[in-house]
Specification:
heterotetramer; A mainly alpha (about 100); B mainly alpha (about 550); C mainly alpha (about 220); D alpha+beta (about 325); B: about 550 residues; mainly alpha; two-stranded antiparallel sheet; 18 helices; 2 strands; disordered N terminus; disordered C terminus; C: about 220 residues; 6 helices; about 75% helix
Amino acid sequence: MSEHSVSPKIYFAIFIALCVLTGLTVWTAKHDYGAFNTPIALSIAGLKAALVILWFMHVKYSSKLTQLFAFAGFFWLAILLVFTLQDFETRDMMNYYFFKP
Amino acid sequence: MKSTVLTPPAPTPHLAPEAKERTTYLTADYGWKSWLFTVDHKRIAVLYLISIMTFFLIGGAFALLMRAELLTPKGDLFEAETYNKLFTMHGVVMIFFFLVPSIPAVLGNFLVPIMIGTKDLAFPKINLLSWYIYVVGGAATLFVAITGGVDTGWTFYAPYSSTYANTNVAGTAIAVFITGFSSILTGLNFIVTIHKMRAPGMTWFKMPLFLWAQYATSLIMILGTPVLAITVLLLGLERLFHIGVFDPALGGDPVLFQHLFWFYSHPAVYIMILPGMGVISEIVACFAKKRIFGYHFIAFSSLAIAIFGFLVWGHHMFVSGQSAYAGMVFSFLTMLVAIPSAVKVFNWIATLYKGQVSLETPMLYALGFIGLFTIGGVTGLFLAVMGLDRHVHDTYFVVAHFHYVMVGGMVMAFMGGMHFWWSKMFGRMYPEAMGQFAAVVIFVGFNFTFFPQFLLGYMGMPRRYHQYNEEFVILNVLSTAGATILGGGFLMSICYFIWSLKWGKPATQNPWEAKGLEWEKAPTPPPTFNFPDGERIVVTEDAYAYTEEEAHDHVAAGVKK
Amino acid sequence: MSDHAHTAPGLAHHFDDLEQQHETGTLGMWAFLVTEVLFFGGMFGAYAVYRSSYPEAFMRASSHLNVDLGGINTIVLICSSLTMALTVYAAQKGSKNGIILGLLSTLFFGAVFLGVKVVEYHDKWVHHLIPGPNFQFTEGVYGGPEQLYFALYFAMTGMHAFHMIIGMVIMVWMIFKARRGDFTPGHHPLVENFGLYWHFVDIVWIFLFPLLYLIGAHEGAH
Amino acid sequence: MWKDFPLYPEQASTIAQPVDLLYFFLIAVSAFFALLISVLVVVFAAKYRKSRPDAYSAHIEGSTKLEMVWTIIPLGLTMVMFAWGTILFFDQARMPAGAMEFTVTGKQWMWKVQHPTGQREINDLHMPIGRPLRLTMTSEDVIHSYYIPAFRTKQDVVPGRYSQMWFEANKLGTFDLFCAEYCGTKHSQMIGKVTVMTQEDYERWLSGAVANETPVQAGERLFTALRCITCHNATSAARGPNLAGQFGKEVELSTGAKVTFDADYVRESILNPNAKLVAGFQPLMPTFQGQVKEEDILSLIAYLKTFGATAPAAGSAAK
């Protein structure tokens, strides 16, 4: 985060965007989209998180290294989630394959 | 207050001739305050050395008691409860308080700033905080051990640990939770230091491979330890407030605990072995007086092990009820993570080719490491193969495998590293002949102890058994005999190390004629700011430039200096 | 980040120049934030697994949460993020009052957030929804997985609230440092790094809100 | 090998021999590499011993070709190991049809086994040679692991769900049975013997052992005793789904998701009825948590397999 300072106008713009997105996520939650509920909710939350990270946390103006660290944290979280869920989601399939009930 | 830490005897000032009038980091200040409130990374390394060796001896004592119990098939030396507490404390103390911190906190703390040519780590106060957290966690664990112990195994598998064990699991969970942060802070310090504080000219590919290994280890410490912290915290919550997160009665899944636990604990075994590999690269290059073979390949394989290490934890759970599909994926990725380790071993051997090999103690440990780590690594492949793991999981085959990698690999590298840099840390040489003898005793005692366990494992003797069947008795007696030799070897080396503090031969700046800033630029023992005052460190040479002159000489018509 | 001055004010002995010290501080903070991401990540992992095993139970349990209070709390936390960002801006411009005002408003929003949390926790206490021996879940259901939901709910929001409390204590300390004039336009690492920490805490809530509150919000769940 | 230094336990099951074959292949590869590396270390250390204090060694920085060689070859070998091991695992793990249905319940520090014909055993297991056995296992407290070294197979027994395992003995004799997953104080005493007998001996043993009722009969008794029939019957006014002939089929839930009507689903529906509600039914069923023991659920499952099933009950007893 070099001495580059972000002007308050951008901060307020981001603030408004975040409030709008919060409203949007509540509104979409009121309607049932079946299997798409979670993906929609998570993508809105991801967008809000990206706004906070890039502007509020100055990652947009930071060194490549800081950006890499920011990305690495979420990437390892993804590793944890994907490989753990991969076990739970395929258990029934495997059980059926081996031991027809 | 700090029951485990004793202030080291400040060595009397008859140091190396030129060191007499020069103040070193040891003689810069006296009194316990100068030690317990120091921010000098070298002093913190010495503090860590003392606390780590204390825990190594405690863990080793537990191990010898266990081996004594297993001398006879019937459980006649200890109650089953006591034996279970012994193997649990042996696991917890050895892993969290010796294997994970030892090389990074002792050799890493001492050498990382010197090797990159800077005065100290990025965050000196956080470095001291890391040691205090380690000591608080250690004191808490010893308190738990004394006031009743814990008998869940170092893996704390739910639901036994969360509901059915009636020993002090919550206390151990909190102690491990605290100690995790010591590891995180050390890792954080190293990553930032290596990124931001390298001396001018010290590019990434001019850095010694020890630093690459420390950097890769720190990545794992940063990315893995927090998940252990949260897992152990959830376990503590479940025990203290009965909020069943892993409780099968509520629909919770004990296998989820295993997923979260092994997400840290498998990369943790790479935290333990990678620094050892870093030390071996340094020792092999120095004692073969030859450039390391395949520098870039060794450096990148350290990173590859660190990153791939996070994708393989499921091979601990092939028969635990994990879906076979997930098992297949984890088995495949475990095969991939084995390749970088193999590449490293082959590169070390290629370094010996056409070198000028001298077999002092550090080199004996390094060559021992290469042999034993190969056996350890290859038996890991046995366990990564699903068809075979169904037979050998949770047997002594697994115990033999990880002891070959941890004791045959990590501890041999730690001993090699201590012998290699001992003169730089304390200005004294250890007794060479005794060093070589102890190395051979440890090598023999180690193989005597753990090779029979491979056979026991395939014969089907399960782990963590207080008593076993008659047919396993011969191999167990062999193993116990080996354990006493191994224990003797370690005690011997600790004795002559302490002896050398006062009566060891004063060491010159570069006793091994090694390359690297810590040998060529930093005096023995280094002053508080590592390099003689006012000396701007600018790095020009490549790492391990042992044959630079010879290369130039060929160019300059072969005149040898 | 020790403060005994050498050449420039606030330059620690082992750094070459202020620029290096500043970048080192930021990198150190980001490395710490990575550990925090994975620390909360463990709980999100448990949430993901249990929600995939018991989707209906999680919806049933989540419908007991007050979505409006959750929404208000999200907006409150976003406001506190804004004021924190303005505090960092004020520190860069060196206006001492700007810093103090920013910190006070961030503290205010934080307090409001925790107040709402206390209300919500009390409401769970009244309805016997605290996981543990006296957990009772009506609607003729055994209530096992529902108790898992509330165990995760309290673990995640509790850990999040705990992180906010730590943040607010640090803010009070920063107000005193600001009053003493410790923050100069060239050297105010504490404000910047604390800003990163506070925004991280906000991001955790940004993910907690939809995953815990909103899964039970659509009609199918009641 | 010498009698008292065996390298591997007796090969008493159909998968023992293939597993040992894989084991010897791995030993061969490991021995080769370990020897290669040890010999190279000793040879290089001796051959290139430091001759003069100021002698220089060769200036070699590396060779990408060599690196490729010792990356590709180990990769190839590990892929062979992976493929062989995974095929072995998947092939052997697939249960042949017509296996005898045994149920195993692990409890802190004992194994309770029940034969298809109802006989119960503690810690031991008598079984006929040459017939596949299928074990449906669960635990009443902590994780155990049913491990028979001579059969080269083990399976963790996790509380709260069913773990399945199958094997087929091809050698007579008595073999060890261990608990392999640490389960508390007497973990090392949770052991037993597996006796493989000829078909006739097994039937003679069965008749000798007291057998009050087969699991199917026990399940039927419980099905009426717990008044399941009042809701789960074929009449249109039934408040619960009709369970006749349902076992093994797909069931549509109220949320539209599809679930296989298998042992885990039955167990969960008994203990936590409204977790997976069948489409078109109200959440009226009370939980039976605490009223039924693990063996009772296993018996109910055995009964449901035969309840209104057209095909003859799979795994019928020896008779």
